[in-house]
TrEMBL record:
Residues 38-504 form the Peptidase S8/S53 domain. PROSITE patterns: SUBTILASE, SUBTILASE_HIS, SUBTILASE_SER. Residues 530-647 form the Tripeptidyl-peptidase II first Ig-like domain. It is an enzyme of class 3 (hydrolase). Residues 1021-1081 form the Tripeptidyl peptidase II C-terminal domain. It catalyses: Release of an N-terminal tripeptide from a polypeptide. It comes from the Eukaryota. One of its GO terms (molecular function) is serine-type endopeptidase activity. This is Tripeptidyl-peptidase 2. InterPro entries: Peptidase_S8/S53_dom (IPR000209), Peptidase_S8/S53_dom_sf (IPR036852), Peptidase_S8_His-AS (IPR022398), Peptidase_S8_Ser-AS (IPR023828), Peptidase_S8_subtilisin-like (IPR050131), Peptidase_S8_subtilisin-rel (IPR015500), TPP_II_domain (IPR034051), TPPII_C_art (IPR022232). GO terms for biological process: positive regulation of lipid storage; proteolysis. Residues 787-974 form the Tripeptidyl peptidase II second Ig-like domain.
Length: 1328
């Protein structure tokens, strides 16, 4: 039996529900005025960047190109292309070392090609990177690697069968080890992280525009790659590769020295642009709000920071907006702020609005539902229109799949006002959910997103339509008149407070009509930017009246100033301001507000006195405004608004507050409670009467501290869906007004659910901050129970971070380029570049902080603070910026360079920051605690106390004593410096939930940073005293000897060595320094005379050190930890003198020195003899190994040599090697008549294991000479890992590994090592 599906008759096309255009009147507005669709309007999207390939971003409704430009303002895609090349025989040398074939069709009149280098993974979002790695591993790496591993294991198994477990042939031993090393090496490489390819970037001017080619062939075949012109001139875009679908565009600085590769840092920006202005000529239902408008994509989301905005990106974006005469900005970004309406970013934003007439629309934030959660700049900045999020019931089914009936409302998570400085915060609301286009790499055409990020572009698109109509009528608007018209015509939503909706829902047709009348009648001077509202409450200045802890004993008095502000009134004609006069009627509907009835406003600040009687206000939050009405035309509506918020909290009976909440879906229930003066924490319990359904409730609590963002004092948690009773412990502050806000999920239907809310307050008086000093005997900490109840206590101190203070190694101030010369302010932005060195002794997780700077973003006194961390050889590790708690970097053992860039216009201000210490917060692994004692004597004796089962009666006091931490407990991850300390918390409660929130900060100062002797050393040592003359003589000698290796000029070094050797003929450090200096030379720079000298010096070293005697001593030393006993045995065995016994330390040090010298001599001899074997070998040995490219690294050089078989000087190297080898063979034979070719390497193995990092490269030479490339690869990889943690260029090692893997047909590993060599060893630091 079959049945036909039910017939569906849609009430409206489904596409219409994907993007709400009806609630704001946009649909009816365009029906009435079809050409007012945003045409002639330029909208700047300050976001994560817009994908220019999207179908809705191609053309406007008039057929013009939709996207004007695509710019990455963050700098994350910048490539240094200051290096230039000229074509030779059709090729140029790329910075990767690849030969780049220049296609004949390219035109470059100057002949100059700028070249740079860019790791492709730096252009990917985290999601794209993970997907590309996963797909590549699945398609290429796994199959190739598994096949290679299986083949290696097969070869090993066959050898075991053929040879067995024993053999008299040395060759069998080496062959077995080689095969085993192949297996081990492939096994170790199975889990390596894909570092991604590295592309050469070529930039040139073709006579018309700058052109850029990224070598995505990664082989120098540029004819296979895309050539793009700068986007503004050409509109060119392309995908990086077919696999990633990441669309990019390019920009080039005027001199060609900087190339910008622009890619979206997220899908967010494309989605936002689609809402604002997408145009689909073949399917208009999918259009954005202003399909006729043009788009300017300005990426402010930095790739390095997971697409977080930076001050650098935002101020640059504002500058571009000024240069290109942008009409509307949409910015769906924001953060909470400690200081509203201040900071360098805010200054530049306000200049842009006031001086260039830009309409700045911004999301209010998604931090609701509690009050005072609006973010910057949307809810806190004068002139910016902050948009809240409106939920339309009609779209719930289509967009969310919610089948239960819901009411239209403000989304619970939409941020609420008022701002802490009294401004309302939210200006207007607009629909906040939509389907819109997303970048190609998302692998879907459209995506549903919601948030104030979506309501903001909805509003911006509406505004663009209104401005389009005004421009077509030749009417000139100002930000002031636009905002006034929008707010005065908005529709107030029923049952929604002003904190949530501002003035209400945008009604664009009403606003257009209102604004047309205002502009036609020239009601306001064209240069009026806004009315500045100033509220004075004693020492506090604000933008509105905000009373949160009211005085209920009488009225409070405020002085209010109102001043009209005019554009450029100080620089240009000030006649508009001189002639400005308005008779204003002041109105307010609240009975608890008293104010004058009229006010005469002129072009200066006029003040009035306002009194607020909070005792007459209702319980809870109340909002009203004193509005200024133009007496000449009341139909205009308010020409300025003075916001007033009063919160009257409920009081607590003893220590508990109870309230019943009606849980209507999506309806916010607020309770304001005055926190008892003694309370420090609270436990909030919600109990739902609904036990049948799986309900969800959001609990959001906030109290406000002066100049502190609400994110620092809020707690938010989604309760449910399991169970019907939930609790949450929070921090509170006595005397403050706590808002406890509860909202039920808006998707649960219209049937309410009652909820009982209980707030239990707890308190323990303790120091807000506790300072302890390492080595202190007993630091007292006093606590006192609250006056209302007993508490169970279990005092404890837990340390979480080691904080290391670093001084800058260098500080450089310099002006930045053309994009940092700001048009609106005529300011040249400078930067201070601070460089710090960090040595990590053990893998650590770190955060970077500059006190007074990194806790700010929008409110920051400087333009921007940005950190970049680099490993050895300029390899990029990670970045950090504002809010350092968000940027934890995992650093492995090694030395790191940290660069901090601080941007600011005033060079003198930057001069004052040149000595800024950097605080590195190192996360402590495991639990690190400080013991507490019950008495001073117990603390001194080291008797920690257990406080389990202890309780304090009401008001009872207790003192505990902090003990000093044992030295062996101090963290060993990073060596402390002067000024370092441990950071942690002290808690008194036994209850784990309360102790987690009721804490005091503990700073544990490390007064001593020098290493103490290890406990394992002998307690008694003897030492012969030196006289000052001996000390001086030795010091002079050591200084002279140290310069032997430092001299770069070989002639000078040779002469100086000869001088020193006459004075100190048997001094081992002198002989070693000269050997190392000669062996660090590249083959091209080596001489037969120097090689002879190395063999001679090594012979002398071995003669002086007597290796067999040293081995005998070391065998005795291994048996004992006690130095004196070791010496006694040695002297008994050798018949040494009593004089030797008197200086145990010197004797042991002498043997350590002899051991070190012996190893160095054998290293040099073994290296030379293996070079001989390599050059005789018929195997396909990598050139870096065959011709000494890795040799300098063995002897401490900072850089090896990358030798290419196709290089111009390859034959010259071969000739030089033949000369050197002839001499080496003769000299080694002279040194040891029994020498036949490999003895020195075997002797070296007596002292060190073959895979020891100090000789791993020599072992690699030995293996390569025998053609045993599995063993060679394992040794090279071992050495490469060690070089990674040092400031040493490992490119010679990595490229050798790449060549070996290619020879072994391990193509995937060859590619990996080629990329790794470029990633680890970069020509320059990554640009800021």
């Amino acid at each position: 039996m079959s049945s036909s599906p039910p017939q569906i008759i849609p009430q409206q096309p489904l596409d219409a529900l994907l993007l709400n255009k009806t609630s704001t009147q946009q649909e009816s507005f365009l029906s009435k005025y079809p050409t007012y669709d945003g045409r002639d309007i330029l909208i700047a999207i300050l976001d994560t960047g817009v994908d220019p390939s999207l179908p809705g971003m191609q053309v406007t409704t008039t057929g013009e190109r939709k996207m004007v430009d695509v710019i990455d303002c963050s700098g994350a895609g910048d490539v240094d292309t200051s290096t230039t090349r000229t074509v030779k025989e059709g090729f140029i040398d790329g910075l990767s070392g690849r030969k780049l074939k220049i296609p004949e069709k390219w035109s470059c009149p100057t002949g100059q090609y700028h070249v740079g280098l860019k790791p492709i993974f730096e252009l990917y979002t985290k999601g794209v990177k993970n997907r590309v790695i996963s797909e590549r591993k699945e398609e290429v790496v796994n199959s190739s690697h598994n096949l290679s591993a299986a083949e290696a294991l097969k070869e090993l198994t066959e050898h075991e069968k053929a040879v067995g477990g024993t053999s008299e042939k040395t060759a069998d031993k080496w062959a077995r080890e080689d095969l085993a090393c192949k297996v081990d090496f492939l096994k170790s490489m199975a889990s390596v992280s894909d570092v991604g390819p590295v592309a050469d970037v070529v930039t040139w001017h073709d006579g018309d525009v700058w052109r850029v080619c990224i070598d995505t062939s990664f082989r120098g075949r540029l004819s296979m790659c895309n050539v793009l012109g700068t986007f503004r001139e050409t509109g060119d875009y392309a995908c990086l590769t077919d696999k990633d679908s990441v669309v990019y565009t390019v920009g080039v600085s005027p001199d060609g020295n900087l190339t910008e590769i622009v890619v979206p840092s997220g899908a967010h920006g494309s989605h936002v642009a689609g809402i604002a202005a997408a145009n689909y000529p073949d399917n208009p239902q999918k259009n954005g709000l202003a399909p006729g408008a043009k788009i300017l994509s300005l990426n402010i989301g930095d790739h390095r920071l997971g697409a977080m905005e930076t001050g650098q990106a935002m101020t640059r974006a504002f500058n571009v907006c000024a240069k290109l005469n942008v009409d509307v900005i949409n910015m769906s970004f924001g953060e909470g702020t400690h200081l509203p309406d201040v900071g360098r970013v805010i200054e530049e934003a306000r200049r842009l609005i006031d001086r260039k007439n830009v309409i700045y629309v911004c999301s209010a934030g998604n931090q609701g539902p509690a009050l005072s959660t609006v973010g910057a700049p949307g809810g806190t900045t004068t002139g910016v229109i902050g948009i809240g999020a409106y939920l339309t019931s009609e779209s719930a089914d289509t967009l969310y799949g919610v089948y239960k009936p819901v009411d239209s409302n403000i989304y619970p998570w939409s941020s609420r006002g008022p701002c802490q400085d009294g401004k309302l915060g939210v200006s207007l609301v607009a629909p906040a959910a939509a389907f819109a286009g997303v970048p190609q790499y998302c692998r879907q055409s459209m995506q549903m997103m919601n948030g104030t990020s979506m309501s903001s572009p909805n509003a911006a698109g509406n505004v663009a339509c209104m401005l389009s109509g005004l421009r077509q009528q030749n009417l000139k608007w100002t930000p002031y008149t636009v905002r006034m018209a929008l707010e005065n015509t908005a529709e107030a939503l029923p049952q929604v407070d002003a904190f949530s909706q501002g003035q209400g829902m945008i009604k664009i047709e009403n606003a257009f009509n209102k604004l047309s009348d205002i502009l036609t009648n020239n009601v306001f001077p064209p240069r009026l930017t806004h009315f500045d509202i100033k509220v004075s409450d004693h020492c506090k200045k604000s933008k509105g009246i905000y009373i949160r802890e009211p005085n209920l004993n009488g009225p409070q008095e405020f002085t209010l100033g109102v001043e009209p502000v005019f554009q450029n009134y100080q620089q240009e004609n000030n006649l508009p301001s001189i002639s400005f006069e308005k008779q204003v009627i002041l109105q307010s509907t609240a009975p608890w507000v008293s104010h004058p009835q009229t006010m005469f406003v002129v072009a200066q600040e006029r003040t009035i006195v306002v009194t607020i009687d909070a005792s007459k206000a209702p319980k809870g939050a109340s909002y009203t405004e004193i509005v200024g009405i133009d007496a000449a035309d009341s139909s205009l509506g308010p020409i300025f608004r003075i916001p007033i918020t009063v919160i009257v909290p409920e009081t607590v009976d003893v220590d508990q507050y109870n309230s019943k909440i009606v849980g209507k879906s999506g309806v916010t229930e607020r309770r304001f409670v005055k926190v008892p003066s003694w309370a420090t924490s609270a436990k909030i319990t919600l109990k739902s009467t609904n036990k049948d359904e799986m309900d969800r409730f959001t609990l959001h609590t906030v109290y406000i501290e002066d100049n502190k963002c609400s994110r620092n004092t809020e707690t938010q948690k989604i309760q449910g869906p399991v169970g019907n009773e939930w609790s949450k412990c929070i921090t509170v502050q006595g005397g403050k007004t706590l808002e406890a806000c509860v909202v039920r999920s808006w998707t649960r239907g219209k049937t309410p659910v009652d909820v009982d809310m209980t707030i239990d307050f707890f308190g323990v008086t303790k120091p807000n901050s506790i300072a302890l000093v390492h080595g202190g005997l007993n630091d007292p900490i006093r606590i006192q129970a609250a006056p209302t109840k007993s508490i169970d206590v279990s005092p404890s101190i837990t340390m979480k971070y080691l904080v290391v203070s670093l001084k800058p190694q260098s500080a450089k101030i310099e002006p930045l380029g053309p994009r940092d010369l700001f048009l609106t302010s005529d300011l040249q932005v400078n930067r201070l570049l601070l460089t710090y060195t960090l040595k990590v002794q053990k893998t650590s997780e770190v955060q970077l902080k500059l006190v007074g700077l990194t806790s700010y973003l929008y409110e920051s006194p400087v333009d921007c603070v940005l950190f970049q961390i680099f490993g050895a050889n300029k390899s990029y590790v990670g970045a950090s910026s504002s809010y350092p708690d968000r940027w934890t970097q995992k650093l492995e053992k090694g030395e790191y360079t940290i660069q901090a860039q601080i941007r600011y216009p005033d060079e003198q201000v930057l001069q004052g920051m040149k000595d800024l210490p950097l605080f590195v917060h190192v996360k402590l692994g495991g639990k690190v605690s400080i013991d507490l004692a019950a008495s001073p004597s117990d603390a001194i004796l080291g008797k920690d106390s257990k406080f389990a089962g202890k309780a304090l009666l009401p008001n009872q006091e207790m003192t505990v004593y902090a003990m000093s931490m044992a030295d062996d407990k101090l963290p060993k991850t990073i060596a402390p410096t002067n000024g370092s300390f441990l950071l942690g918390t002290f808690s008194a409660f036994k209850d784990s939930d309360l102790s987690a929130v009721d804490k005091s900060e503990v700073v544990y100062y490390l007064s001593e940073c020098s290493a103490r002797p290890a406990k394992g050393l002998s307690m008694v040592t003897t030492k012969k005293e030196k006289n000052q003359k001996d000390e001086m003589t030795e010091a002079i000698r050591d200084l002279e000897v140290s310069w032997v290796q430092k001299l770069a000029d070989e002639k000078m070094a040779k002469e100086y060595f000869e001088t020193c050797i006459e004075k100190y003929p048997d001094h081992l450090p002198l002989l070693q320094n000269r050997v190392k200096q000669i062996m660090q030379a590249k083959l091209n720079d080596q001489t037969t005379e120097n090689v002879k000298k190395v063999v001679e010096l090594c012979g002398k070293i071995l003669e002086l050190t007597k290796p067999n005697e040293v081995l005998q001593f070391l065998s005795i030393k291994q048996e004992h930890d006690d130095d004196i006993l070791t010496v006694d045995k040695w002297l008994a065995l050798t018949g040494g003198s009593e004089e030797q016994r008197k200086d145990v330390v010197k004797l042991i040090a002498s043997f350590d020195e002899r051991k070190k010298a012996t190893i160095l001599a054998l290293q040099a001899l073994a290296s030379l003899e293996q070079d001989l074997e390599l050059r005789k070998s018929k195997k396909n040995v990598p050139a870096n190994i065959k011709y000494g490219g890795i040799t300098p690294l063995i002897f401490g050089a900072k850089q090896g040599e990358v030798i290419m078989k196709k290089s111009d000087n390859y034959e010259d190297l071969n000739k030089k090697a033949t000369e050197i080898d002839t001499v080496v063979a003769e000299e080694l034979k002279k040194l040891d008549s029994q020498w036949t070719g490999g003895q020195n390497y075997v002797k070296l193995l007596v002292w060190m294991a073959a895979d020891d990092s100090k000789i791993a490269l020599i072992s690699a030479k030995h293996a390569a000479a025998l053609g045993q490339f599995g063993r060679c690869a394992k040794m090279l990889n071992k050495a490469g890992e060690e070089l990674k943690s040092s400031a040493i260029d490992s490119q010679a090692v990595d490229s050798s590994l790449a060549e070996i893997c290619e020879n072994l047909e391990w193509t995937h590993l060859s590619t990996y090592f080629k990329n790794l060599a470029l990633i680890k060893n970069r020509p320059t630091y990554r640009l800021f």
